[in-house]
Design a protein that fits this description.
Helix content is 33%, strand content 18%. The chain is an alpha/beta fold. The strands form four sheets. It has an eight-stranded mixed beta sheet with strand order 1-12-14-13-15-18-16-17, with helices on both faces. Bound molecules: zinc ion.
């Protein structure tokens, strides 16, 4: 899987789809489908690289040019493959802009507050090329904010202070920290799914809106490496910046107060040659039919497209999914076992472009999923480290996950020697929940992967699990770069695939509990508690504002209390259910399954109809 790139919508991605389809057919799954969507994806030009240049205006010659091709090969054999794509951000607008030295602005992490700070200092963003650090907000938001404030171009880089904090000698291939030549790919499209078929599945017959009406950026955006960013930032002029000090970062230069270049004869050129391209991407769907309730689905998913080799993101997860389906089919062959409810395995296409094919699938099968799906269990990547489990989940699945992690043996021998024998034990110690002492931290399920359509559009309780590293805020340092290779996984993160095995076991356990339990063991009480804490947070944060506007939280608070009471009564009622009466069992299970759906507003959030 990691020997070649598998970029969404390309022949390599289709080859991978057929390969997964073949595996599932060989394993003997009851049904295997390839589901195509006609979508608009974005590619760098095959001939002309995207470049950033520093130009001397005296003779219009470039005195410096950014690295043209993916990144410098460092270690793995495949790093040096000849046909790797030029570095790019998905959906970045093609364009060639040049600005004079005073019109280059460093905007820290590119957040609203960073732009606000600069504007309060009198910097007008109109006509500027901005240079921002990756890492605090979604890169598509950086591009959106820059565009909204009038910038004509965006250059992104990863600051070593965030991605290689141990210094430039302790980086890949000596560690999992980012080398100075790395420039991570990533989408800059803000709205999920195919941009030309909002709210509808991108089937062949679907109406596709014109490209100029699509919600994609209208400014060129380009990622560059830290060493290339240094070339620009170190030439900026003025006095050392007195404040704010957290703008400094880890590159070897002092951030200057003035914007623009020291040498007044210099200009900055940003040249992006991407092309938005209609293409086909496929989901591969494999089904093990339930023996008792075939029309109730436990859905498991992972995307199989990658920016380049994707050995961490996503193929650590793809490998886990193929192994899990293989084991379940082996169990079925050896013992005659069938799941009670159907298990639906989904290999998603074009996730990296902004959860494209999974979102289209949830749009196409929304009615079936809304009435039949029990849960959606995502593993975007099985590992991005070997320090502890990291779990994002809807509260409805909390107890199932807690109980699952208590059953899975700890893959870390040192932790076992320290008396922590299960995945749960290490998780509770290394990533404790500060709000609920004694429990491990369960993070919010956001919208950063294929669970988006399930959790936020349909209201299907979803989770995403992986093993992670020791830095809570930092993403995987090599995320979306050329260096996410098999060697990184095999030699640095997980020799022997022990952590992959633990995640696969947990994934399988949660799926089995949801497919086998007669009464679905959702965490209704945890959901009620979650809503209580959230409402307290809202009152704490916005209480004064709400009072000032003559509004009240009284009815909301009352509804929360009422929800607690109903959960308590219902939990009592569950104990009385006649387990031999299939209609009674189906009734209480359907009631529970619909709880999450009850919180879906078909009109969506104000101004954000795609979040329901
Ligand atoms: Zn991913």
């Amino acid at each position: 899987m990691t020997r070649k790139p598998s970029l969404g919508g390309t022949e390599e991605e289709r080859e991978m789809a057929r390969w997964i389809e073949g595996h599932w057919k060989d394993q003997g799954l009851d049904e295997v489908h390839l589901v195509p969507y006609q979508v608009l994806l974005s590619y760098p030009s095959p001939d002309v690289p995207n470049l950033v240049r520093i130009i001397d205006s005296n003779d219009d010659k470039a005195i410096w040019v950014s690295a043209p091709k993916a990144e410098e090969p460092l270690y793995a054999e495949e790093d040096a493959l000849p046909d790797l794509p030029f570095t790019f951000n998905g959906y970045a607008f093609p364009g060639n802009v040049t600005v004079k030295m005073s019109d280059v602005v460093y905007v820290n992490y590119g957040r609203e507050q960073d732009f606000d700070f600069l504007e309060s200092e009198g910097v007008d963003m109109t006509g500027k090329i901005i240079i921002a650090r990756y890492g605090k907000i979604f890169r598509a938001n950086i591009a959106e904010i820059a565009e909204a404030r009038g910038a004509v171009g965006v250059v992104l880089f990863s600051d070593p202070i965030d991605y290689s904090p141990e210094g430039s000698s302790f980086v890949y291939p000596n560690s999992y920290f980012m080398p100075p030549s790395a420039a991570p790919f990533g989408t800059v499209k803000l709205v999920d799914g195919d941009p030309l078929t909002p709210f509808y599945p991108a089937t062949e017959s679907a109406f596709h809106i014109p490209e100029d009406e699509a919600q994609i950026p209208k400014v060129p955006v380009q990622p560059i490496s830290p060493e290339d960013a240094w070339q620009i930032l170190s030439r900026m002029g003025g006095e050392p910046a007195p404040a704010p000090s957290d703008w400094q970062g880890g590159l070897n230069f002092t951030r200057k107060a003035d914007q623009g270049f020291q040498q007044k004869n210099l200009k900055l050129n940003l040249d992006v040659n991407n092309k938005n391209t209609p293409t086909t991407t496929y989901n591969v769907i494999g089904i093990i039919k339930g023996s008792v309730e075939p029309d109730r689905y436990v859905v498991l998913g992972n995307h199989y497209d990658a920016w380049i080799f994707g050995a961490v993101d996503p193929h650590s997860g793809t490998a886990a999914m193929l192994e899990l389906s293989r084991l379940l089919m082996q169990l079925s062959k050896e013992t005659g076992w069938r799941p009670r409810r159907s298990l639906v395995f989904c290999a998603w296409g074009a996730e990296e472009y902004g959860v494209v094919a999974s979102l289209e699938w949830t749009e196409q099968f929304e009615k079936q999923l809304a009435s039949r799906a029990v849960a959606y269990l995502n593993v975007d990547m099985a590992i991005e480290g070997n320090y502890t489990l990291r779990t994002k989940s809807a509260p409805m699945l909390y107890d199932i996950i807690f109980e699952g992690t208590k059953k899975i043996p700890n893959p870390n021998p040192e932790e076992v020697a320290g008396g922590r024998t299960t995945v749960y034990d290490t998780w509770a110690v290394r990533r404790p929940d500060t709000v609920q002492p004694g429990l491990p931290l369960m993070q919010f399920i956001g919208s950063g992967s294929d669970y988006k359509g399930f959790q936020h559009n349909i209201g299907i309780p979803s989770m995403d699990v992986r093993y992670t590293h020791d830095n809570v805020t930092l993403g995987e340092p090599m995320y979306h770069t050329l260096y996410e290779t098999f060697a990184l996984v095999d030699e640095i993160y997980d020799r022997g695939f022990l952590y992959h095995k633990a995640v696969t076991a947990l994934w399988g356990d949660v799926a089995m509990v949801l497919s086998e339990s007669k009464i679905l063991p959702y965490s209704l009480e945890a959901y009620a508690d979650f809503i209580s804490r959230a409402s307290e947070d809202i009152i704490k944060t916005y209480g004064d504002l709400i009072a000032q506007r003559n509004m009240t939280m009284e009815f909301f608070t009352e509804a929360v209390a009422n929800f607690h009471k109903i959960v308590k009564d219902f939990t009592e009622e569950l104990k009385q259910v006649d387990l031999e009466n299939p209609l009674q069992v189906r009734k209480v299970n359907d009631q529970q399954m619909m709880v999450e759906r009850a919180f879906i507003d078909p009109r969506g959030l104000p101004g954000r109809p795609e979040y329901k």
